[in-house]
Write a structure and sequence with these properties.
- It comes from Oedothorax gibbosus.
- It is a single chain.
- It is built from 17 helices and no strands.
- With 327 residues, it is mainly alpha-helical.
């Protein structure tokens, strides 16, 4: 009983620190070791203040005896080791005031617990430092890949210019050009991309758009069919010619949209500028429409998106602006 009374007085002296421990970490461990049950856990979890929670833990220790205090110390060793160190130093201080006979072992225990707490803190810091180093290495690797992607076309073009550049006395000035290209390759990738796009010619952007609009593989017609296709433009009527050109334009729009629809800025183009608010009448008609009507409506909407994207990309100035901002 004397030992239990000393334990309870120790817990009362450190009641404030015991109540400040996060309950979501301590209470499940106390329940696992059998110090409290599930009902006590819910009661302590819903306690209105830290002091009431600490009183509940102390009362549970007083009911179970000294073995419950040992279970509490085991839980504190992983959840709050500094409080366990305070317990040991407090016991050493009390025994030191009574006499110097048994204070040595208690001081040794307190120092061991303090070293254990220090080691746990160092392990946490080491793991955090390791994660930070891994993230830093990933960032450096990504920046290096970005530098290489943005600088590779410029380096090749600068090397070509270096090979073609000849000074007045007939000697090549390749060393200066190589120094220039490598210094530019190590510059800011975003600024480098913007400069590259600002130097891009209108014809290059036009070729890029037209290459997307062309089909990848064109069928080679036979000799008889080629003659027939060559004569088709002369023999077809005006309506047939309009329908054929309309089909070709739709095909170009579809190819450009399918290649660029995953880009974020293309999806912003595909949306209409001012969408009309859906009226309750239109919502009701959408619910009542059949499968065929729904398919036709979705086909019309998709065709409208393809047309908007293609019409925007035909304007090369707008294309250059979008590439400069989002490219």
């Amino acid at each position: 009983m004397a030992v239990l009374a000393g334990v309870l007085s120790l817990l009362e002296r450190h009641k404030k620190d015991l109540g400040e421990i996060e309950p979501s970490k301590l209470l499940p461990k106390l329940e696992n070791v059998g110090l409290i049950n599930s009902e006590d856990r819910r009661t302590l979890q819903d306690a209105s203040s830290n002091s009431k929670r600490a009183d509940g833990i102390i009362s549970a220790v007083s009911r179970k005896g000294f073995s419950a205090f040992q279970d509490l110390c085991l839980c504190l060793e992983t959840v709050c080791p500094h409080l366990l160190t305070k317990f040991a130093l407090d016991i050493a201080g009390v025994d030191g005031n009574a006499g110097d006979g048994g204070s040595t072992s208690n001081l040794k225990l307190g120092l061991q617990l303090a070293l254990k707490e220090r080691d746990s803190v160092l392990r946490e810091n080491a793991s955090a430092l390791k994660q930070w180093n891994e993230m830093k290495n990933e960032r450096d690797k990504a920046l290096a890949d970005l530098h290489s992607l943005n600088s590779s076309p410029k380096i090749s073009s600068d090397r070509d210019s270096a090979s073609n550049h000849v000074s007045e006395n007939g000697e090549s000035n390749g060393a200066a050009c190589n120094t220039k290209c490598f210094s530019e390759a190590l510059s800011d990738p975003v600024e480098e991309t913007r400069q590259f796009l600002s130097r891009a010619k209108r014809t290059e952007i036009a070729q890029w758009v037209s290459s997307m609009a062309r089909p990848k593989t064109t069928k080679v017609a036979s000799s008889s069919k080629s003659k027939k296709t060559r004569g088709r433009g002369k023999d077809e009527s005006d309506d047939e010619r309009k329908r054929r050109r309309r089909r070709e334009k739709r095909s170009r729009e579809r190819r450009v949209y399918e290649k660029l629809k995953d880009l974020k800025w293309v999806s912003s183009i595909a949306r209409p500028k001012s969408p009309r608010p859906s009226s309750p009448k239109s919502e009701g008609t959408r619910k009542d429409e059949s499968d065929d009507e729904r398919k036709r409506r979705r086909r019309r909407e998709k065709r409208s998106r393809e047309r908007r994207v293609y019409e925007k990309l035909k304007d090369l100035k707008v294309m250059a602006v979008y590439l400069t901002v989002y490219g």
